Amino acid sequence: MINWLRIVMVLLAIAAMTLALAPFQLAGLAFDWRLRRSLPRFWHRAACRLIGIRIHVHGEIDPRRPLMIAANHASWKDILVLGALADVVFIAKTEVGSWPVFGTLAKLQKSIFVVREQRRRTGEQVNEIAERMADGEIVVLFPEGTTSDGNRMLEVKSSLFGAAAAALPLAPEEVVFVQPVAIAYTRIHGLPMGRYHRPIAGWPGDVAMLPHLLGVLKAGAIDVDVSFGETVEYRAGDKRKDLSSLVEGRIRKMLLDHLRGRHPG
Q1: 109 neighbors 83 (Cβ within 8 angstroms)
Q2: Is 259 in contact with 253 (CB distance < 8 Å)?
Q3: Which residue pairs from 260-264 have beta carbons closer than 8 angstroms and sit at least 24 positions apart in sequence?
C-alpha cells in the first residue's frame, strides 16, 4: 500500500511540475529563446530525483562544437539521464511523437523526429540535425536504433551517423566532434543489479510501457553510471563506417566495464 501511495505521489508531482513549466517552454519554443534549451534540463533532473534515479558521472562532455553524443540505448530513462546532465536535443523515431505523454514531452523539448522508412525525407531531416548542431546544440544519437534489455549493446547502424557528415559543411573548422557515451544501470537500492534484475532498468521492445514504468517506480532507487568517452574528430573524407566502428567499440568497452564492475571510477 505504501509503495503504491509513493508511486501515485511521484506521478502527481511530475504531472504538476510539467503543467507548471509547460507555458514557459511553449513560449521559449515560440520565440526561440535559449530558455527552451535549459528548461528541459531542470525538468529531467527533477524527474530523475522523484523517480529515484541516481546518476554517477565519469568524465565530462566535450566543450567543443558542433558536438554529437552517441550513446547506447537501454530504456526511455536514458533520455531522462542525459537530459539531466546537459542541454541536449534528441533524435527520435517519428512514432515517438504519437506516444501518450512521452510524445508530448519530446515535442516540448523540440526533439528531431526521423522517418527512417521514407528515404525522400531523409535529406530534409539530416539537414535539420546539421543546422541544430551548427547552432551550438548538442545532438544525442542512439545509433542502435532501438532499446535493449540493458545487459548488452546491440549492433550499431552506421547509416545513422549521416547527420555528422551533413554537419561538416556548416562546421567552422570543418570538423564534427562525436563523443561516445555509455549508460549502465548498475544498482538497485545500492546493491549490484546483475543480469537478472537489469531488465528493470532496460526496456526491450516486447515489454509494454505501463508495466515497465510501474516496475521502475516500484524499484524506487536505481543507480546509473554515465561515462563520457574519448571524442572522435570526424572530418571531410573520413568514412562513416570507420566512425561508426570506432564509436561503437568505445561505447561497448565502457558499458561492459561498468556492468562487470571493473570501472576504476
Answers
A1: yes
A2: no
A3: 261/186, 261/192, 263/58, 263/225, 263/227
Residue ranges covered by each domain of the chain: 2-259
Question: Residue 54 and residue 116: Cα distance in Å, rounded?
Answer: 33
Q: What is the pLDDT of residues 146-155, one digit of tens each?
A: 887 777 788 8
CA-nearest of 140, 51, 131 to 87 is: 140
Four-point Cα dihedral 67, 46, 104, 153, nearest 10: 50
The pLDDT value recorded for residue 247 is: 96
CA distances from residue 93 to 77, 136, 149, 171 in whole angstroms, order as listed: 16, 22, 19, 25
Q: What are phi and psi of 100, to 5 degrees?
A: -60, 140
Sign, CA dihedral 54-60-66-68, equals negative
CATH architecture for segment(s) 2-259: 3-Layer(aba) Sandwich (3.40)
Q: Judge contact between 161 and 244, C-beta under 8 A.
A: yes
CB 181 within 8 A of CB 235: no
Q: Which residues pair with 233 in a beta bridge?
A: 177
Residue 226's beta-bridge partner residues?
Answer: 57, 183
For the chain, how many residues are written? Answer: 265
Average pLDDT, the chain: 87
Give, for 9, the enclosing helix (H) or strand (E): helix 2-31
CA distance 36 to 69: 19
